[in-house]
Amino acid sequence: MRRHTQPSGQNLSGRFASAYSCILLLGLMACVFVITLKSLPAQGQEQAQDSTGSSDKNAFLILQTNLQPPYQQLQNGILRGYSIAVLNCAFDRIGVGYGIAIAPRQRNREMVRNGQADGFFLARISSFMDEYAEPTLPLALEKWVWISAAGQQGSFASSPTPDSLLSVGAILGSNEAEWLAEQGYQEIAKAPSINSLISQVLAGRVEYALVDKQTFEAARDSMGNHEDQFNVQFERYAPLVVYIGREYTRLNPGLIASLNTALGACETLPMQLEDWERDLITRQQLPAIRAMAANAELVGAVRSAMGGAQIQPHAIVEIDREWRQGSEGGIASPKATEILENPLSDILRAFQESDADNIAEIFVFDTNGAVIGMNRLTTDFDQSDEQKFEVAISHDPDISQIADIYFDGSTRAFLSQVTVPIINPETGDVIAAMTVGLDVSGALRPDS
Questions:
Q1: How many other CB atoms sit within 10 Å of the CB of residue 46?
Q2: SS3 assignment for 65-133
Q3: Per-residue model confidence as pLDDT tens digits over 261-296
Q4: d(CA 85, CA 89)
Q5: What values do phi and psi take at 271, rounded to 5?
Q6: Residue 280 to residue 148: CA distance in whole angstroms
Q7: Alpha carbons 166 and 151: distance in angstroms, whole number
Q8: In 3-state terms, what secondary structure has residue 374?
Q9: What is the C-alpha to C-alpha distance for residues 17 and 11, in angstroms, rounded to an integer?
Q10: Residue 58: what are its φ and ψ, rounded to 5°?
């Protein structure tokens, strides 16, 4: 599919003119206008009609964005970066053309809200945005951290709270600044750029600044500063999504679903746990998960669930196929419904509800990989093709597995799956495995 960059001086009409109006900002703040057009051949236009459930004349869309290194930045006048590559991949897969216009973040949101643009990225998931737009699955994942000068008085035993007297800062118009305001932080210092914010922290004018870790590290290094000059404290993970305006989704009702399916097939950045995060889960969460797996009532329910006839491998394949088809639409297949209603699933739901801030999901699978209990519908029935299955077939009662982070669209949460064996207390044999999906935003906070 061909792409080209529209010269900024060329006349545009209709929605292109609305996007181009971003240069008319108050004051001296400049708006870089680069609109990338993805043109569609006739075959692609037919694909667009099939994918979105509407005519191709409505399918083309204008997306607003802002410069946000290292996710997206201008290189020789062309917008490049990880998020752009993922977006291009997804739109290529569904055969829909789109254009990109660059403006400050606040302006972008207003254009979507007022119907002057069809969508906006990179945006955090926000109940305010939900009122007039619908989010896709994430293009990227931000890790928000508090930074302060290393020589500053005080401790990072806990993050600054809205009612503390500590001064906090963020980049003007950023996702972090919005979130701070929503949480009730008062008098937020808003710097025009990440470099300016870092300088204010080092000068002591801002005691704590909330920033994306990757963005901070890239700017810190480019400024010639050293990591030893800063304290860094994790706050939360934040998904970066595309918000599509509800007027556009009304005309093209199938686009979000098609785009989400395509995003799932496009390359994504690895969301690896850092060493301190893995260590924190091992020390603070793993003992409680092991104790849960050894609970006498749970073990008894597992043995009862496995007491019937074993499902044959060919049947597992067919059950898994039907299960997946249903789960994509949030519908439980007959087998999934049966499992959701068994005593083991009741126990798992009680465990999850007792620690809902940290645990988003919990399920058990047997030594064939078949799910036999779950607190909520899982995406698939057969776990034998996943790395966690090794825990179920291991003869080591002390084995455990802590997986890297993934985004769970049904809960809008970032999870790390922790899998441990379930042991028959009479023989010491591994009879099944239990997977707990930890919500990393809660479970990895220092005070969790």
A1: 13
A2: ECCECCCEEEECCEEECHHHHHHHHHHHHHCCCEEEEECCHHHHHHHHHCCCCCEEEEEECCHHHHCCE
A3: 888 777 666 578 888 889 999 999 999 999 999 999
A4: 6
A5: -105, 70
A6: 22
A7: 15
A8: strand
A9: 8
A10: -95, -15
Q: How confident is the model at residue 335 (pLDDT cuts 50, 70, 90)?
A: very high
Checking phi first, is residue 110 left (phi over 0); if not, alpha (psi -120 to 50) or beta?
A: alpha
Contact 363, 373 (CB under 8 A): yes
Q: Which residues contact 250 (CB under 8 A, 6 or more apart)?
A: none
255: its two tokens: 């686009």
The answer to whether the CB of 169 falls within 8 A of the CB of 206 is yes
Query: Angle at Cα 127 formed by Cα 125 and Cα 128, nearest 5°?
Result: 105
pLDDT over threshold 80, residue 400: yes
pTM of the full structure: 0.70
Buried b (16+ CB within 10 A) or exposed e, 102-137: bbbbebbbebbbeebbbbbbbbbebeebeeebbbbb
- pLDDT number for residue 430: 96
Strand-pairing partners, residue 407, are 414
Question: Please, which residues have CB within 8 angstroms of residue 151's CB and are 6 or more apart in sequence?
Answer: none
> How do residues 336-392 score in pLDDT, each as one tens digit?
999 999 999 999 999 999 998 899 999 999 999 999 999 999 989 999 999 999 999
Host H or E run for residue 319: helix 313-327
Looking from the CA of 353 toward its CB, the CA atoms found within 13 Å total 9
Name the token pair of 324.
Answer: 């997946």
Provide the pairing of β-strand 230-245 with 133-135.
antiparallel
Conformation bin of residue 226: beta by default, left when phi > 0, alpha when psi is -120 to 50: beta
| Cβ atoms < 10 Å from Cβ of 381 | 26
Nearest in space to 333 (alpha carbons), one of 341, 323, 342, 324 = 323
Q: Are 150 and 231 in contact (CB under 8 A)?
A: yes
Counted residue by residue, the chain has a size of 448
Taking the CA atoms of 232, 235, 240 and 246 in sequence, report the sign of the dihedral they define.
Answer: negative
